[in-house]
């Protein structure tokens, strides 16, 4: 027998740095299918990182069709797609909409001199955009191409970020949303429009830049589909990948906070006004702060490699359970990968207070606590308050219940975990675009109840956090003195 009714699904596509992931969900935000596929990064010179936009398109087409086939979607079914993807990366198109050169990725380091040029020409750039002009951003990439590949720059008609290039390839429509635009280094974070101050100071033509729209705006119908299941599918404009991660973690209200525990540890927080370090969030009246600790999960991996090579990180983390809260007064500074506690330089990683009486368990617990302390310090350095209800934890490190409880106690907030990701957040954007829900807070299952079982340890860990913060402040002061 045939199917009883037409299918209606949402598709989230995440164009990551090394792979794409596609998630298909229904109206209750239940996941029906997940597919992924890798692609390569090219490094033609030291410090460079590039990708072929055409390879993105081929890989994404095949992965979307695979995910739809697993659900049983065919032509005639209703499909709404929203994209997310790596932010800051630069795609230059000619008049015909074809890429002029490989995309310069966010992890490319060639545009250091161009970043300094932006600082020189636009002294108030950070006040305008909310962030300094980092070499990762689109603006320094553009200036590099203008300086080093003038014949390419002269032919450029449009500059897009990866997700917007893919949607343009499908629909022929050229636009971007304000989350990705705020990561280019050219958007006024208050007005959510391209900054004429920045463009004029650097001699850039505003016509190079696409219109900036709401992430849930109509992105157009798929016109150039590689398979019948995609033909006529509708698209929403979508958001940058960090914003899709935030949405999937339920970060839609001012004060919401999440931590992703991967190799690095990323803190995402929502504010109701532009603040230093913030980008424009999906909702028009919210902004998102992003802070990161480079050696988040890496700190634990490093200690495992030193003390117990070959053991799984999960099993190694369990050693912390053999030590008491507070690690017998042992403190760990997780500055293992060039972290900076002041503008003048980096701080050293260290175990402080180490004695012959400390055990392996003390060292492991000190690492878990030290990472938690630094994440709280990063969050508080923005001058914002902590949320009252729940903190959302995700990533590989969140599979350690002990680490989750430690972070919860250090922040003094109940925690919950989620395994939802950026592709899921993109699918949420598709649903809002379709008006399946009246607002972000109405998305099913977005917010949950937190586990407060770890808060009994909060007073002791707060005391240890104060000691940690004082130590880092001392390092910061000494670093400033040596500038």
UniProtKB/TrEMBL annotation:
Lineage start: Bacteria, Bacillati, Actinomycetota, Actinomycetes, Nakamurellales
Family to which the UniProt record says this protein belongs: Belongs to the heat shock protein 70 family.
Gene3D superfamilies: 3.30.420.40
Alphabetized CDD domains for the sequence: ASKHA_NBD_FGGY_EcXK-like
Any GO BP: D-xylose metabolic process
Family matches, as InterPro entries: ATPase_NBD (IPR043129), Carb_kinase_FGGY (IPR000577), Carb_kinase_FGGY_CS (IPR018483), FGGY_C (IPR018485), FGGY_Carb_Kinase (IPR050406), FGGY_N (IPR018484), Heat_shock_70_CS (IPR018181)
Protein name: Xylulokinase
UniProtKB keywords: Carbohydrate metabolism, Kinase, Stress response, Transferase, Xylose metabolism
Keyword flag Transferase: yes
TM region positions: none
Record-annotated Carbohydrate kinase FGGY N-terminal domain positions: 10-217
Keyword Kinase assigned: yes
Pfam families per record: FGGY_C, FGGY_N
GO molecular function terms noted in the UniProt entry: kinase activity; phosphotransferase activity, alcohol group as acceptor
Residue ranges annotated for the Carbohydrate kinase FGGY C-terminal domain, each copy included: 257-432
